[in-house]
Amino acid sequence: MAAALGLVAGADAAPRPAIAGTDVLTGRRVALSQFAGKPVFVSVWGSWCYGCRSEAPTLARFVNAHRGRIAFLGIDTEDSKSGARAFSRRYGLTYPSIWDPRGMLAGRWSRGAPTTLVFDRRHVFVRRIEGTATLAQLNAALKQVARS
Fold this sequence. Notes:
Elements lengths: L6 E3 L5 E3 L2 E3 L6 E3 L8 E6 L4 H16 L5 E7 L3 H11 L5 E4 L3 H6 L5 E5 L5 E6 L4 H13 L1
Parallel strand pairs: 5-6, 6-7
Antiparallel strand pairs: 1-2, 3-4, 5-8, 8-9
């Protein structure tokens, strides 16, 4: 029943909305479900967020190093489109980010930005990295989902 309502049960068993919305850069619809068969990392971020600015180069390196093996998606929360676009250009972000101007989607999945959510190949929620993610944390999460 929950799946029919678009809700997903995660590692902490709380029903959560499906991760989907409009990409802040292209205006196209994007959803976690588009990345069938791949682990997906989801970054909750905002251009206003100091931790997000310090984390962005690490995420960009991680995404580039594992291109094709994983999918990466952002949730740009409590931000303006112009701020998000400038942030994406500044840090060379190549992955789509859902625009979440009121923080409604991000607030259902995280306690704030930055947060990285990790889903396995079946898109089951596996891990949450709260705060600025390190390369070691991202690699450990990748190792965990690569086994599933």
